[in-house]
Amino acid sequence: MDRGIGSAAVEGDALGDFRIVSEPYFRPVGNEVALFEAAFASRMPVMLKGPTGCGKTRFVDHMAWRLGRPLITVSCHEDMTASDLVGRYMLDADGTVWHDGPLTLAVRSGAICYLDEIVEARQDTTVVIHSLTDDRRILPLEKKNEVLKAHPDFHLVISYNPGYQSVLKDLKESTKQRFVAIAFSYPEEAVETEIVANEAGVDRPLAQTLVRIGHRARNLKGHGLEEGASTRMLINAGLLARRGIPIDEACEVALVLPITDDPDMRDALKSAVAACI
Ligand code: ADP
């Protein structure tokens, strides 16, 4: 469906699927909620920086709900093209018809667009966000010969895991400088215990044990482990334990085996588990 020219609104509730109706649980760790609200109010694009599984995506879900904006999330990957974000002409029964990509849909309709792991995409793809991140707030749809002015509520959020970056795979300096960055890391023990207990539905002592295991596993980072155990992995172990899997086995399948193939590292992680249970 051609959705019209310029900043014309999306008809009906085309964004119904992107609205978050019930509050996603998010336990703030610092001042991230106020920072995001201030950035949104100023329409400043936001970069969420931090390791995988530490709550960035959950935070965006929560903020979209809190601000009452639809959320369009795109998981970026290296085969993604600018057309995957912006849109393309496609053939259907009526002939050649333009289809908005997720970024265009968000720009047109005033949604929050969350580009998850942006650096996974090639630089010739990410360049399309440039004109959206400065005062112009426009998106050129080159193939359509149209320049789309962003809806006043459009907001761009990207996530970025500094640990994965290499010189080749990094955001351009000129792109980075257009964002405000909110730093995420794994929360302190008491807060992470609360999150694991809540998300896995386990009691506090078990959640605390899992968090202590997580801390030990994170200490092995840099000694052969690329990333330590994330909050997500601790929750996974908790979910298995809740279903009756013995805690050591739950930790092995959720915390140890997924992150290493190295027998020595596996033994080191297993002893970290054994020391805590
Ligand atoms: P990321 O996007 O950083 O890779 P996620 O947001 O997917 O990570 O977090 C992984 C899981 O950890 C979430 O699904 C959620 O269950 C839990 N989580 C992490 N941090 C928080 C937090 N502060 N509040 C609530 N849940 C959290």
Any overview of this molecule?
The chain is of the alpha/beta class. The chain has 2 domains: 7-183, Rossmann fold; 189-276. 39% of the residues lie in helices and 16% in strands. The chain contains 11 helices and 9 strands. It has helices spanning 32-41, 56-67, 82-86, 102-109, 123-126, 173-176, 189-200, 204-219, 231-242, 247-256, 263-276, and strands at 46-49, 71-75, 87-92, 95-100, 112-116, 138-141, 146-149, 155-160, 180-183. It has a 5-stranded parallel beta sheet, sandwiched between helices. A hairpin with a 4-residue loop joins strand 6 and strand 7 (146-149). Helix 8 packs across helix 9 and helix 8 (204-219) packs antiparallel against helix 11. The protein is elongated and about 65 Å long. The model is unreliable at 1-12 (pLDDT under 50). It binds adenosine-5'-diphosphate. Adenosine-5'-diphosphate binds at residues 25-27, 29, 52-58, 195, 199, 231-232, 235. It comes from Mesorhizobium plurifarium. Belongs to the CbbQ/NirQ/NorQ/GpvN family. This is Protein CbbQ. InterPro entries: ATPase_dyneun-rel_AAA, CbbQ/NirQ/NorQ/GpvN, CbbQ_C, P-loop_NTPase. GO terms for molecular function: ATP binding; ATP hydrolysis activity.
